[in-house]
Amino acid sequence: MRCSGLFYYGRSNAFRDKVVKPMFRLFIVDDNKYERNGIKESIDWQSLGIQVVGTFANGLEALTRIDELKPHIVITDIAMPLMNGVEMSERIRQSHPDVKIIFISCHSDFEFAKSAVDLGIYGYVLKPIIADELERALHKLLAEFTEQHREQMEKERMMQQLEGMLPLVQEQFLKEVLLGNFRNEDDIRQRIEFLALPIIEHATMSVISVKCPRAEGERERQSAMDAYFQSYSIKNRIARSETPERAMVPVQFSAEDYAAIVFDQQGDKQGVIDAAVQLNTSISAELGIQATMGISTCSRELTELERLYKQSQKAVNTRFYSGSNPIILFEEIDDRSDSPFEEMPSLEDVYQDMKALMSFGSGQDIEEFIGKYLNDESAKHGESYVKGFALLFSHLTGILLLESNQPGHFGDNAAAWDKLNRMSTKEDVVQWVRQTFAAIKERLTDRNASRNVKVIGAIKQMIHDNYHEQISIEDISKSVYLSGRHANGLFKKETSQTIFDYLIQFRIEKAKQLLKEEGSKVAAVAEAVGYLNTSYFILAFKKNVGMTPAEFKSKAALPL
């Protein structure tokens, strides 16, 4: 049914805005030629920033030209021959979802028009059309277009800024991944793609922690420019270590702490070690920094990067080493049998620290332990934490005494808790922990000292018999039925060097003997003394002897 609506040409001055360059394209669709022309002629479209690019008698005609003329807005009647406004709107929504549609309608089919709300129709104007009403609908629509345009321009501006800051944003994202703040594989991959990170797909990943300590007082003397240049130089050398098969992505955590995320296409662990050796040599020779590095195990899962980073940190920060080797593999120091609290890292840390202190810790070490767990000013521990930690301390002390075949120290748990509750200040608890350490250490040191001598002898014999094999601290400590930390502490207390230092020293001495033999080859000597990686052997040899194996061999061959 059609209605012969009259078009009212009255207009308010409120819409006579200044003329602007047309920005938006418009279709007018109505089977009544007079109404089509009336809509077209009655409104100052240019002042609205709109250009009428087509008028059509039905929906089918409009659809045939939509791809060519690309309208932003369609004003359409509903009841039309061949294709009505509802069917046309449905097709436009499917093919051009960003086009805004305004219905014009008689009262008789207005209710029918309401049923098309799910088509995303932007507005309705009743016939007979009043120009002001149509302009109000258009102004509302244009305001939305303008806001969308503003948001798009803002997004483009932000993307331009992001592009200029991309290296910093990339590094910050990778830092967050290493710290465990992103744990969803799909989320990580989407961000890697968005940030255009140089990641090799399906690569084996590992993490190298790089510690670049500065000499005493150097930080105060170093200018801001020098500090930034040093950071840039270290990260640049990490990035330059990459190959077509191996990406090396640098991440800085502080002025002294860096990480290199390694993506290796071939899964070559020896290649990663070689890259670490070359990087260490470059930092030392070109920057004069004696860096220490810790290398993690490998994984193919991006969500494992947090674990790999923790491994590399454990390696680079381990207490087992005193500087004899600047590159430490996590496999060399991993001791999975050392604690009964594998699922509770915080308990494991306390257990390990207490075990080391009770065996060979000094008074200063005990004070550091108390400072770490009870007197940390930044943590501001409350009463419940202090007493809870003290109860944990009492439980772990009992475990450690049982491991040493010593009777318990505290009695039952209820008595221990009662004693702790009677302590009125944190200092009471601290003093109690201090006294407990002293009492336990005195009890343990009264044991037969000859046992320690036998243990040290057994460790040395284990190294003498197996130095040419791939042995770790865990292997050596297991041979004397001790944990890695306990065995290492006992060995250092009696010999003034760590087990690892002794192993390296013994291997180097054996290597020196073999290098003196006529016809010996550096690679063969390295393998004969337990080094599968020749570069790794050369670095360790030079660190301990002061010259490379080749230089030592040449010098040894000279006549006396």
Automatic annotation (TrEMBL):
Modified residues (4-aspartylphosphate): D77
Domain HTH araC/xylS-type: 457-555
GO BP term (any one): phosphorelay signal transduction system
GO molecular function, one term: DNA-binding transcription factor activity
Keyword field contains DNA-binding: yes
InterPro entries associated with the record: CheY-like_superfamily (IPR011006), Homeodomain-like_sf (IPR009057), HptR (IPR051552), HTH_AraC (IPR018060), HTH_AraC-typ_CS (IPR018062), Sig_transdc_resp-reg_receiver (IPR001789), Tscrpt_reg_AraC-type_HTH (IPR020449)
GO cellular component, one term: cytoplasm
Annotated compartments: Cytoplasm
Residue span(s) of domain Response regulatory: 25-142
Gene3D superfamilies found in the cross-reference section: 3.40.50.2300, Homeodomain-like
Spans traversing the lipid bilayer: none
Keyword check for DNA repair: no
Name the record gives this protein: DNA-binding response regulator
